[in-house]
């Protein structure tokens, strides 16, 4: 068995795997003998089926399976031994019918791979913001805690402090030919949702407010205030809607006392309002800083992508797209798709290069820990902060039984580790900034 390489350029080549009949003959013969021993054929006792009969029926399939196995192993071994970082997957070269009885046979594969280049992270610099929570943001966060555990107080009329619960139903046309069943959408609006709150102004419980799909699609602020996103708008099947006022109430905020502290952070962990404010500030600062770190890393990656010349195996990628996607029927179509994906491929190569050169490794412990973070974040959305660690881990393990979740979480772990590498090795232009100013920077 032999693998030869013919380079097309610095990022693509033809690999030819050559097998001698002796490479697979003995294994094929051994498999056929085992078939003969176990075959059940009418007119013959088990184990007494003539080998010639077994060969006639099974030899071709067994030979092709063994050849395919050896070719795949040879190809993978060559790629690994030569440290080739493939872009896409090998594309087999079209050939005439394979003759497994030939003394020698060859199979060709077109491959594309990443170019050789290096990235000096220490040569890149970007602003690294130090973002601190303001008193206003701390107050807002604490007020949200109070709202979460607030008591409802029913109202007859809507005031500026009211919350209005709505049930929004689609109105099915009288001449509709088939039965329609669209569950009503439940939403609550307050003065914070200006357009939605204006819609219900002056209403009482039981009142029905008319609106249309056109209103929602043409008025983005109204749609958002009623919690409609683009996906939901696309699934409104009727023009007319009715919003029924189900409930009007105000919230009596929970008092800032030990009972509230214990509900939010667990019994005895916070014992005063001062401790609460310090804890909230620490949490907000950490959250803001995580966002600032991500912003810094993204800026560094943008600069690397702009500066570094990364040659792509474009001719190969056109072939690969046509081979791997039956819906792509021409080179022109494949080239158009490649043009749209070039920057994504380049960025993936850069990120992979940084991970490889900085010896970033990922193991199951890392993936499990990230899954636990995701579980805790999901629980926090429902106000659950103190689930025992063994319970959190149980949910995380269950999450990792799904292959797609493992892939996504592994990618998150890799990017988190890459973030730490970039934060450590790239130059930071340290700048203090308010959270509002930071949000403006994110929009640039």
UniProtKB/TrEMBL annotation:
Protein's UniProt keywords contain Transcription: no
Annotated keywords: Isomerase
Pfam families: Trigger_N
InterPro entries registered for this protein in UniProt: Trig_fac, Trigger_fac_C_sf, Trigger_fac_ribosome-bd_bac, Trigger_fac_ribosome-bd_sf, Trigger_fact/SurA_dom_sf
GO molecular function, one term: isomerase activity
Keyword Kinase part of the UniProt annotation: no
Membrane-spanning segments: none
Trigger factor ribosome-binding bacterial domain: residues covered: 1-145
Protein name: Peptidylprolyl isomerase
Native source species: Cloacibacterium rupense
Gene (UniProt): tig
């Amino acid at each position: 068995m032999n693998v030869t390489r013919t380079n097309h350029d610095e990022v693509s080549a033809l690999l030819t795997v050559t097998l001698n009949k002796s490479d697979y003959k003995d294994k094929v013969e051994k498999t056929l003998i085992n078939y003969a021993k176990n075959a059940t054929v009418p007119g013959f006792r088990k184990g007494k089926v003539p080998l010639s009969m077994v060969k006639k029926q099974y030899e071709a399939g067994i030979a092709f399976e063994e050849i395919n196995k050896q070719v795949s192993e040879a190809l993978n071994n060559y790629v690994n031994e030569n440290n080739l970082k493939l872009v896409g997957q090998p594309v087999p070269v079209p050939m005439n019918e394979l003759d497994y009885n030939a003394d020698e046979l060859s199979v060709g594969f077109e491959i594309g791979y990443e170019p050789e280049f290096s990235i000096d992270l220490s040569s890149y610099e970007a602003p690294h913001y130090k973002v601190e929570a303001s008193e206003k943001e701390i107050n807002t966060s604490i007020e949200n805690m109070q709202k979460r555990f607030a008591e409802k107080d029913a109202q007859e009329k809507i005031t500026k402090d009211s919350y209005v619960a709505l049930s929004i139903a689609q109105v099915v046309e009288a001449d509709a030919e088939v039965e329609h069943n669209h569950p009503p959408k439940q939403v609550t609006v307050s003065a914070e949702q200006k357009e939605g709150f204006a819609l219900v102004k002056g209403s009482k419980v039981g009142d029905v407010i008319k609106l249309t799909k056109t209103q929602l699609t043409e008025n983005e602020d109204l749609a958002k205030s009623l919690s409609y996103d683009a996906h939901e708008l696309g699934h409104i099947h009727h023009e007319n809607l009715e919003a029924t006022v189900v409930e009007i109430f105000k919230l009596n905020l929970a008092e800032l006392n030990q009972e509230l502290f214990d509900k939010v952070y667990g019994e005895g962990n916070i014992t005063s309002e001062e401790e609460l404010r310090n804890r909230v500030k620490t949490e907000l600062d950490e959250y803001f800083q995580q966002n600032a770190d991500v912003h810094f890393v993204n800026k560094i990656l943008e600069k690397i992508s702009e500066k570094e010349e990364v040659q792509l195996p474009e001719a190969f990628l056109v072939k690969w797209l046509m081979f791997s996607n039956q819906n792509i029927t021409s080179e022109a179509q494949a080239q158009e798709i490649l043009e749209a994906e070039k920057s994504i491929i380049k960025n993936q190569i850069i990120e992979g290069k940084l991970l490889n050169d900085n010896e970033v490794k990922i193991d199951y412990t890392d993936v499990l820990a990230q899954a636990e973070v995701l579980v805790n974040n999901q629980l926090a959305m429902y106000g659950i902060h103190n689930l025992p660690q063994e319970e959190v881990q149980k949910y995380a393990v269950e999450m990792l039984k799904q292959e797609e979740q493992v892939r996504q979480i592994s990618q998150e772990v890799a990017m988190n580790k890459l973030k730490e590498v970039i934060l450590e090795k790239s130059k930071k232009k340290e700048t203090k900034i308010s959270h509002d100013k930071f949000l403006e920077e994110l929009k640039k």
